[in-house]
Task: inverse folding
């Protein structure tokens, strides 16, 4: 095969047993790769109503057909599982050298099921797969684990994806990281921990062949040039933290647990401030011509020596959302999250919720085990991260995510628990971004900016962001399908503006790389198919229309400040947009898949989500 | 003929590995970093800033690799200055001495052809694949004289930066001169230790 390696590796940790399944060609065209492959395999291999921590739950790592080639940003993989945080499909992307190594080892997909008897790690050495003892890795951070595994295998070049202490302790928003990159959201790390799997080390020597290499090289050289132009300027110069001042200006920067939408100290946590004071260098993922990874270091003060990569979402969650304007503390907090292996967005949103509970007197220092959890107290942020990542004391409850934690604490704290389907929200105040609000509400994995780019028409002014309209249903649908294609090919979203006509160009690239003829319509339909299958999985696991909702605060408390003052999303507005979205999708009014749609997409599932 | 080679500016290199893939595509019509004649190296020490650099054959005038090659499979092409590998029966025996003794780790073993491969500057093409592809223009084809000039101008820039910084902070002339001396000294040290 061209592009693909043509092999799926199945690992059963319980037995332990390994087997290789040839990649069915029909799967390639219909589901492309990455998220498409892993959604289909999750659906087929996980029995309905499986508990996320049951050995039958699968943890699926899937690369795309462009990985291993010189296509810009093609080295990405998806991590898909039934999420312990939401109970629905959990998919998250990471990338870089590990992805490339999996491809070189000769696999498109790795499906991990079962549970190892003791803490173990998997070593995939081309065709030779072994399970090795990982007791010596217990309680080690992610960077330490990467180094120790390399030492254990006596090879500096081995690539490692691993979990930290939080994954071992099954913190519900624990993540899986490799080479400074993280599959951050929806708690894949907790599932990996539940399987007693500490790491997956990979070493590969195989070659990736493409159908038409001359054409591919020419096309890639052109894209590399475009990737140095205005299409990616934001990511290259300031990185995503350039959002801080932009969003603050338009009153979309959630501050102090979404009590405000502007932050009075935004300048001090801006991308501009970061570049001037903390960026030590900017590096790229494997095969990426953009290079957005801004490595930041603290030079002096109480957090001197802290160093990690900073992105906007981490910055929002652990900065303005917790009332923090001391940049070194944000770097320290992110570094801790990266070491423990927890999602920075979830972590920041949970801490902000704790702080509001504390300030409103719903909890006291007795509850927090002595932490004075006030907005702006960065010491409290650091202490709470330690507690929740280790599930120590009050951290035991916090490790369940903001939805379950607020249900436990009660006293009305659910009102300001900022999540959709249990997944904590990223840093865009959707009260003043109504297309995005619909996108967040319907997202299969819960509140998320990566599964639909629905905020783009709002922010660019293409639509009136303060108004809810029927037309937003179609916008959100198209945006979700578009993202499904990016996640399945799997390429980085930061490359999206480098194309004049996304579907036409990518369908052409797909054929150049794989040799499989794919029309623009077929590519578009694959996006729709993958979106629908994610939904079918959720329906199978008990989804109802009530799950497509928004946090109570977003629907009850209008934005109090800035140019978005007074904006809120009413129940009527959300209902109207939901109806429009389901209609655009060709689903029933209750949001269920119709027989007609399933036949049209050859989905092979029934309306209750069972395989036909 | 002026001796030229591929040089990487670590200040510009982001460690994307595209040079390796472009080299593999040009030379072997497929993608495998192990086929590449140039090697992207990333040092991530967790405390220091991450170092990215790409290393390949420097076309030394009196190359160690040629000297240590027992079967005499390596030789210098008199016209181009390139190190040529004899892949024939009595040629390269995969011992790897050349790779071990090279200061830049440039000669590497081709995993399928089982011979040592070395950069040939894509001498038969219009431009080397790696310099053409490098998205950050970190790679260039340079002669030794150009490199020295580049180093000198970098030193000058450093001094200028320190000088203006000193002026902004109204540091005394004495201190300014001291700083310049330190910069020069540390640079000289860096330079000599890299040799």
Result:
């Amino acid at each position: 095969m061209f592009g693909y390696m043509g092999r799926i590796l199945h690992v059963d940790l319980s037995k332990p047993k390994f087997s290789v399944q040839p990649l069915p060609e029909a799967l390639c065209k219909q589901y492309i790769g990455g998220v498409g492959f892993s959604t289909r395999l999750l659906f087929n291999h996980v029995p309905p109503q499986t508990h996320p921590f049951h050995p039958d739950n699968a943890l699926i790592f899937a690369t795309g057909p462009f990985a291993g080639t010189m296509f810009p940003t093609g080295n990405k993989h998806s991590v898909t599982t039934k999420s312990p945080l939401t109970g629905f499909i959990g998919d998250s992307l990471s990338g870089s050298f590990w992805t490339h190594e999996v491809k070189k080892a000769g696999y498109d997909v790795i499906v991990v099921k079962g549970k190892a008897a003791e803490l173990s790690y998997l070593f995939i050495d081309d065709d030779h797969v072994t399970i090795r003892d990982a007791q010596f890795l217990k309680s080690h951070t992610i960077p330490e684990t990467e180094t120790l595994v390399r030492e254990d295998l006596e090879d500096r070049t081995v690539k490692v994806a691993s979990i930290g202490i939080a994954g071992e302790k099954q913190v519900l928003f624990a993540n899986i990281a490799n080479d400074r990159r993280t599959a951050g959201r929806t708690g894949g790390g907790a599932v990996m921990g539940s399987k007693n799997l500490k790491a997956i080390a990979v070493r590969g020597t195989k070659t990736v062949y493409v159908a038409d290499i001359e054409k591919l090289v020419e096309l890639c050289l052109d894209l590399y040039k475009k990737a140095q132009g205005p299409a990616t300027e934001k990511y290259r110069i300031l990185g995503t933290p350039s959002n801080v001042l932009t969003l603050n200006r338009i009153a979309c920067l959630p501050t102090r647990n979404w009590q405000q939408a502007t932050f009075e100290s935004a300048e001090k946590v801006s991308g501009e401030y970061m570049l001037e004071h903390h960026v030590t260098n900017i590096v790229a993922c494997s095969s990426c011509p953009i290079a957005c990874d801004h490595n930041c270091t603290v030079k002096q003060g109480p957090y001197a020596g802290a160093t990690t990569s900073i992105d906007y979402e981490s910055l929002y969650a652990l900065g303005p959302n917790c009332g923090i304007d001391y940049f070194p503390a944000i770097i320290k907090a992110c570094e801790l999250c990266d070491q423990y292996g927890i999602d920075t967005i979830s972590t920041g949103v949970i801490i902000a919720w704790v702080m509001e509970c504390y300030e409103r007197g719903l909890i006291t220092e007795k509850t927090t085990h002595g932490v004075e959890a006030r907005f702006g107290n960065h010491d409290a942020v650091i202490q709470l991260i330690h507690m929740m990542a280790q599930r120590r004391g009050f951290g035991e409850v916090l490790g369940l995510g903001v939805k379950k934690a607020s249900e436990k604490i009660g006293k009305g704290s659910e009102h300001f628990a900022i999540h959709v389907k249990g997944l904590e929200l990223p840093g865009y105040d959707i009260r003043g971004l109504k297309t995005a609000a619909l996108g967040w509400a319907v997202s299969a994995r819960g509140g998320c900016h990566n599964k639909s780019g629905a905020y783009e028409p709002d922010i660019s002014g293409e639509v009136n962001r303060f108004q809810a309209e029927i037309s937003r249903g179609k916008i959100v649908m198209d945006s979700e399908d578009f993202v499904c294609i990016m996640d399945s090919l799997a390429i980085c979203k930061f490359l999206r503006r480098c194309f004049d006509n996304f579907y036409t160009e990518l369908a052409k690239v797909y054929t150049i790389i794989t040799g499989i003829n794919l029309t623009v319509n077929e590519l578009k339909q694959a996006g729709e198919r993958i979106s629908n299958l994610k939904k079918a999985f959720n329906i199978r696991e008990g989804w109802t229309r009530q799950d497509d909702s928004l946090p109570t605060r977003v629907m009850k408390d209008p934005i109090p400040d800035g140019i978005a003052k007074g904006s809120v999303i009413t129940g009527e507005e959300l209902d109207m947009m939901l109806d429009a979205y389901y209609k655009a999708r060709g689903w029933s009014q209750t949001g269920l898949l119709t027989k007609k749609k399933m036949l049209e997409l050859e989905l092979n599932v029934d309306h209750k989500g069972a395989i036909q | 003929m002026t001796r030229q080679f591929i040089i990487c500016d670590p200040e510009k290199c982001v460690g994307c590995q595209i040079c390796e893939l472009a080299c593999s595509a040009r030379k072997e019509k497929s993608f495998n970093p192990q086929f590449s004649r140039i090697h992207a190296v990333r040092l991530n020490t967790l405390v220091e800033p991450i170092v990215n650099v790409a290393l390949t054959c420097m076309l030394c005038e009196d190359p160690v690799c040629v000297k240590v090659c027992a079967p005499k499979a390596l030789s210098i092409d008199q016209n181009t200055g390139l190190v040529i590998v004899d892949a024939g029966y009595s040629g390269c025996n995969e011992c790897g001495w050349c790779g071990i003794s090279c200061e830049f780790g440039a000669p590497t073993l081709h995993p399928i052809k089982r011979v040592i491969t070395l950069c040939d500057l894509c001498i038969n093409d219009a431009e080397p694949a790696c310099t053409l592809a490098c998205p950050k223009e970190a790679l260039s084809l340079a002669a030794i004289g150009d490199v020295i000039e580049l180093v000198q101008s970098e030193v000058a820039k450093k001094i200028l930066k320190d000088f203006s910084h000193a002026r902004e902070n109204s540091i005394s002339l004495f201190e300014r001169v001291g700083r310049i001396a330190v910069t020069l000294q540390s640079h000289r040290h860096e330079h000599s230790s890299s040799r």
In short: The two ends of chain B are 24 Å apart (CA to CA).
